[in-house]
Structures are given as structure tokens and as C-alpha cells.
Target: Two-component system response regulator GlrR
Amino acid sequence: MINRATILLVDDDHAFVELLAMRLESNNYLTLRAYRATPALKILQSEAVDLVITDLKMAHMDGFELFEKIKSDHFGMPVIMMTAHGSIPDAVDAIEQGFLDFINKPINSQTLLHTIEKALCNTVKASLSNTKHNYFGISFKSCAMRQVVHHIQALAPNNVNILIQGESGTGKEVAAKAIHQASGYASGPFIAINCAAVPSHLLESELFGHKKGAFTGAINDKTGLILSANNGTILLDEIGDMPLDLQVKLLRVLQERTVRPVGSHTEHKINVRFLSASHKDLQQAIVNKEFREDLYYRLNVVSLTLPSLRNRVEDIVLLANQFVDELSSHSKTINPQAMTHLLNYAWPGNIRQLHNVIEHALVLTPGKLITEDTILKALPTQHKRHFQGLNDAKKQFEYDYLKKVLSLSEGNVAEAAKLAQRNRSDFYKLMKKHGIS
Ligand SMILES: Nc1ncnc2c1ncn2[C@@H]1O[C@H](COP(=O)(O)OP(=O)(O)OP(=O)(O)O)[C@@H](O)[C@H]1O
Model:
């Protein structure tokens, strides 16, 4: 379980602090409040704070002065500054002085949460920490997964339908189980059905059940999976593969909260939490008329996206070692060269593929050490390197820099060019090179 982060809010506008605290607490953060810089410093001496968000303009001691004191007494403490809307000089100063980030007032909720999560992940504490986490079966170390788990912690207790998206094998079912276990339905059943794996003519009866004699082959009454999941959670996996006629019936179930088995006249009331998952782009499926838009909005009250494994390399080492421990009875280890190949692989099949590769490598390893040769044999030959070389890393830096400067200047290219100390035509060229319009 990951701990809830504690955020210290500092601003002399009491009402604003209260509002901000409410927003953050409803997103599963703990908050501490200070209405001036001096009490904020006192709080920092006595409480375990993970992040400070401070206003710039405050009576007695402003945000910059507060930041200087925090830097000297609490090394590594991430501090985000709030700036008045459009105040580019303040924002530039803040970044130059070493503030981790800045947020413009009035504050947009999405930007706020994104900035906070980014800051918490980038702290000195987080980057030095070697902590592995396990949240109801989700093992992780990466910031990307930390954000997902944080999201799950906030969403699980609310009975909203969640659509879980992500490439195949990224752990959508594992995430669904974690949501179930962290929710009020945890004492009830968790049932998963893969809509793509059941022949379409059987899917309806599988989900809703049937009465004896409802169709050829219905020799007994059958309870459907939705009813079996009563007081618990059902995961409709690969929902994008559900036939259109069944989508209409599912929509009705979600609206009425009742289920009628095939061939029956009886409606059964249900109390089930619906989670669905898909590796397909459902919005594209709507455009292609393969998925109903009304059902999409019912299922996707909130969406959760799982990052692909190549975007969370810190988890590769953790998961590879975990799978070795789970799958081998004798304590085997992966040697560093072999691990480098695992880190360099693109993992199109994500965690499931990593699991299979480790399983394969273990079969090929009679001794205690899984070597480079063995890993190369176990990995599909057409694997491509994705670990960034220096040139790619430089390009990425340039791209991120341009985006940051443009964000500081709120899209004003002339202003951005000035900040970057380039003339305007150079700056346009750089933007063009990176496809930024
Ligand atoms: N964070 C994790 N920690 C440990 N094991 C994991 C994690 N995430 C996924 N796995 C393992 O990876 C495999 C694939 O996970 P899962 O079935 O949840 O993926 P999925 O996204 O639902 O796949 P698909 O799109 O094919 O349905 C499983 O064996 C699962 O146990």
C-alpha cells in the first residue's frame, strides 16, 4: 500500500486554501494549511510533509523568501509556486530559483493534480528511494504506476463505473482486482469475463443467464455472471469485442440495475460494480460504428490508463526478479548483462510477455545464474531497442524544453524565443523540427 502524500498549502487567502485543501483531500491527499510563511516553517519542523505548495505574494515573508528557508533547512523538499494568472516573469523567476514547478491561478484541477503527481515522483526522496510497492497485487516502483495506484485509491471507494485502458498485458485485470479489493464490494465476488473469448451467440446467456428450454441446448436454468457477481464486481474484459445487439442489452442493465435471463420474464435486481477493460481505442470504434456511444459514456464514467511496460523501465527489473522468485524453486538470479537486454527490449506484450520470457529463460537455466545468452534465446529475435541513445535523449530534452518555454509564455512564440535567448526565426525552425505548431 502506498502512503497518502501530505501536502502543505501556504497562502494568506484563507478561503482559497480551504478550497484547495478540499480539492486535494477529495483526491486522496492529506493536507496541512498555513496562512503565512512563518507558521508554514513551524509545521515543516514538526510534521512529515511530502510537498509544499505556496503562493508567491504574501505579507511579511513572500514565497521566494520562504523557499530559501525551506531549501536551507529541508534539503530536497519539493516546492511548487502558485503564480497569478499570466505572470510570466514570476513563473520564470520561480523556475530559475529552483522551484520544482509552478501553477497558474486560477487553478485548473487537472493541471494541479498532474503537477503534484509529477512533483512527488521527481523528488530527491523518490529518486533515491529503492522502495518496491505492492498494492493489492500490483507490484511497482515507477512513477507512472505510482500515479495509477494513486488514482485507484481515490476511485475505488466511489461506486463509479471505470473503463480500464492499456495495451495488452499491461495488467488491466490486476488493476480491476485491486479496485475491487480496495472498494466497499471487497467482501463480495470478483468475476471477470473476456468478451472476446466467448463465442458471440453464447455471450448473452453467459452474462445474463438463461431459463431451461430458452434455446436449443439450454437443458437447465443457468445463472449469468452478472447475477453471480451480485454484491461484488464484474470486469467486462475486451468490451470492445461485444456484439452491438448485446451492447444495447448491457446498456439497459446498467440503466435499470436489473437483469433478465434469456427466456425468462423475471427481472432480478442487482447491486454490482461494473468495470470494463479494453486494449482497443473505443472512441475510434464509436466512429467506426462498432461501439455504442451511449454505452461508452455509461461504462467510462472515469477512465484509468495503464502505461506500457516500455514506459516504466524501473518496473522491468522489479517484475523480472519477482517472476524469477515466483517461478523457480531454487534461488536463481538474472545477471546484469542479461538484465540490460530486458531493459532494452520494447515489450509489445508488456508484463505478460515479460512473465513468459522469464519462464522460458528459467527452463533454459540449469544453474543458478540466468545469463545474457539465455535471455537472448528466450527473447523473440525481432526485438528492437528502445533505450534512448544520447542523440535521442538530447532531442527529447530539446522538445521538452521548447514545450516548457512555450507553456511559460502561454503560447506566445515571440515571448518564448526571448526566454530561450534565440531569435524568432531560429525558434520557429526548432519548433518545426520537433513538429510543434
Ligand atoms: N503490476 C503487476 N505486478 C505483478 N504482476 C503483474 C502486474 N501487472 C500484470 N501482472 C501480470 O501480468 C500478466 C498480465 O496481466 P493482466 O491479465 O492483468 O493484463 P491485461 O492488461 O488484462 O491483459 P489483456 O489485455 O491481454 O487482457 C498476468 O500474469 C498478471 O499477473
Notes: The mean pLDDT is 87. The two ends are 42 Å apart (CA to CA). The CA atoms of residues 417 and 424 lie 6 Å apart. Residues 138-140, 166, 168-174, 237, 277, 279, 319, 351-352, 355 surround adenosine-5'-triphosphate (CB under 6 Å).
